[in-house]
Recover the amino acids of this structure.
């Protein structure tokens, strides 16, 4: 006796229909637990990140003003901050590090943009070598670097450590090396987002030379990458301690270390101020790069 | 003296020869296309004219001036790129005016010229837009305007339409030709699209493996191909292997069936040859000419205005003949496997040397 014939497609449809609510319920449960896990991880991350900052903030606010201080709220509760800002060394060292940072950025960009551009355009085979060189600061500790610099430049043929200017030059040189991994990668990523060869050739076919092509075509189109590399460099330079100490430079890093040894609350306040400055720098990246991101998104939509 | 001259130009990248013995003399205002499959050396030749590549040997001259060793920014040659290469940080007007700014023209001159060119490309109100705010076709028109703004001696276009969809491609190629005629600028156009090359050009240079296969008008290239490669690359082509029976009488044998060819050929009796026959030359039935081949229908494809049929002649191992019939309501299409006759006139086909293996020719067609 033959049984009733079964249409396999119809049977599959029925099975799908029967299983669908179950599968949907399972999917909902999975989605919900995934969301809970995601939130737990997020909250844990936030606590891990914010916790120490909050503790530092609370600690910095424990400072009490001297009896001779003004009785206003700021002087009484933010004395670590007001003391710090009243200390001329704070402003002086911060300004010094800031200026060194700006010079470092200018030198890094002048050195690395043409290098990365040329490697991408004409020497792609040298890319690995250049990448390796730019990663060396991760391998060579700053203390080795600064001892090498001091030994190399303490006397002829290029005596630099004997004067303030010479030491500043050495400091900038060392900072440029320290910024290599961040700056080169930022520039390289920027160059990857544009068609370097076509833009260069288009510019040349219109009569432009190398300098104009680099200045008017390439640099404006990697602006966001340059900014991110620049601010990372600035953040590194402002907090750098080892090289500035060994070269006896009045930088912010050694200043932080100095007040850390002598005062209780001010280092916490100084850390938060430098942290705030870094965030302002990050905000500037986002602000200045906003136009470019819009362009990229719209271009991708075409 | 011709306006653009390439004499004995050769380009080698290490052991690989990209372009060999390239000679071209283009007149002022002429539109020349380089046509060929990928890797045939057409873009390398164009880049040598632009100055982006230096020839290994040979000479390039524009209006009698030797520019072989001159850098690209000193050649006065405008170039349109496949990827448009518009400067993303500049508006359309600034893109178009860039070449003039480099040449230190004053602001009024630049503004006037940019306005003229935006009118020319029918984008007069798009000057303040950025490239990303334009469609692909509009971007390519801006790239064309930018290349023309500084009045170059030669305009080079490197597959400028290949990134666009079919309709825009056709519209834009007409526009390019119209603008080129209007300005009378000597133009070199690189493409792998034979339709583009044939419809746009005064002359076409067909290239293969770094060599010039043939230079001629589109009419000559299509109707009188000089080599098996040109015959196969330009247009659709049947290549039917056969044997010469009597060269004086122009008779051959294809799949054991006798044929007569009126175009003279220089092959001895018994020589293996290829009969090159365009699909549009062949007809279904016996009314298409004095030559008849019998076979079985393998395939019928409806292509809109044309119906293409493939008929295997002379048994199961015989060659396949493709033929085109105009689509008419009265057209009776044979079924697959039905017996059918193919006919064509004696002056239709060309007899080509079988020394160029059919496999190679087919591979080249597939590659293209």
């Amino acid at each position: 006796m033959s049984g009733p014939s079964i249409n396999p497609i119809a049977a599959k449809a029925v099975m799908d229909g029967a299983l669908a609510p179950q599968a949907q319920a399972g999917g909902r449960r999975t989605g919900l637990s995934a969301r809970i896990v995601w939130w737990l991880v997020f909250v844990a991350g936030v606590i891990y990140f914010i916790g120490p900052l909050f503790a530092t903030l609370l600690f910095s606010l424990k400072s009490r003003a001297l009896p001779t201080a003004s009785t206003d709220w700021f002087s009484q509760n933010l004395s670590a901050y007001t003391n710090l800002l009243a200390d001329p060394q704070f402003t002086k060292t911060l300004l010094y590090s800031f200026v060194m940072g700006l010079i470092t950025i200018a030198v890094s960009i002048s050195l690395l943009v043409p290098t990365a551009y040329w490697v991408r355009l004409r020497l792609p085979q040298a890319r690995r070598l250049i990448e390796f060189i730019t990663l060396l600061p991760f391998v060579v500790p700053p203390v080795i670097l600064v001892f090498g610099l001091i030994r190399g430049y303490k006397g002829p043929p290029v005596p630099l450590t004997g004067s303030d200017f010479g030491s500043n030059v050495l400091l900038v040189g060392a900072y440029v090396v320290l910024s290599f991994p961040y700056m080169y990668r930022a520039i390289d990523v920027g160059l990857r987002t544009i068609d370097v060869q076509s833009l260069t050739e288009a510019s040349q076919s219109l009569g432009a030379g190398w300098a104009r092509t680099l200045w008017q075509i390439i640099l404006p189109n990697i602006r966001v990458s340059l900014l991110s590399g620049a601010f990372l460099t600035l953040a590194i330079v402002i907090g750098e301690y080892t090289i500035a100490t060994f070269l006896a430079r009045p930088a912010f890093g050694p200043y932080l270390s100095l007040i850390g040894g002598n005062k209780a609350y001010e280092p916490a306040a100084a850390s938060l101020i430098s942290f705030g400055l870094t965030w302002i720098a990050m905000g500037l990246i986002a602000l200045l790069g906003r136009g470019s991101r819009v362009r990229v998104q719209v271009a991708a939509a075409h | 003296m011709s306006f653009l001259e390439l004499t004995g130009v050769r380009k080698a990248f290490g052991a690989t020869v990209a372009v060999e013995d390239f000679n071209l003399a283009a007149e002022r205002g002429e539109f020349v296309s380089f046509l060929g499959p990928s890797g045939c050396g057409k873009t390398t030749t164009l880049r040598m004219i632009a100055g982006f590549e230096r020839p290994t040997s040979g000479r390039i001259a524009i209006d009698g001036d030797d520019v072989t060793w001159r850098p690209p920014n000193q050649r006065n040659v405008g170039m349109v790129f496949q990827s448009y290469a518009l400067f993303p940080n500049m508006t359309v007007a600034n893109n178009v005016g860039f070449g003039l700014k480099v040449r230190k023209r004053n602001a009024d001159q630049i503004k006037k010229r940019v306005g003229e060119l935006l009118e020319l490309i029918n984008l007069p109100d798009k000057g303040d837009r950025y490239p990303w705010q334009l469609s692909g076709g509009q971007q390519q028109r801006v790239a064309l305007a930018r290349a023309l703004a500084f009045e170059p001696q030669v305009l080079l276009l490197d597959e400028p339409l290949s990134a666009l969809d079919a309709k825009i491609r056709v519209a834009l190629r007409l526009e390019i030709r119209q603008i080129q005629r209007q300005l009378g600028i000597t133009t070199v156009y690189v493409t792998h699209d034979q339709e583009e090359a044939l419809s746009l050009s005064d002359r076409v240079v067909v290239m293969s493996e770094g060599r010039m296969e043939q230079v001629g008008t589109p009419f000559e290239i299509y109707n009188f191909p000089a080599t098996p490669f040109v015959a196969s690359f330009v247009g659709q082509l049947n290549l039917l292997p056969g044997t010469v029976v009597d060269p004086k009488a122009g008779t051959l044998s294809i799949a054991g069936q006798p044929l007569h060819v009126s175009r003279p050929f220089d092959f001895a009796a018994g020589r293996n040859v290829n009969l090159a026959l365009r699909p549009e030359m062949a007809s279904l039935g016996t009314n298409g000419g004095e030559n008849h081949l019998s076979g079985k229908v393998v395939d019928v494809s409806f292509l809109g205005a044309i119906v293409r049929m493939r008929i295997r002649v002379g048994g199961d191992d015989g060659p396949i003949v493709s033929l085109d019939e105009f689509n008419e309501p009265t057209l009776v299409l044979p079924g697959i496997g039905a017996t059918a006759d193919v006919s064509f006139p004696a002056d239709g086909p060309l007899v080509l040397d079988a020394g160029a293996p059919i496999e190679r020719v087919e591979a080249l067609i597939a590659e293209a």
User: Anything to note?
Assistant: Residues 1-18, 293-302 of chain A have pLDDT under 50 and may be disordered. Residues 8-61 of chain A form the longest helix (54 residues).
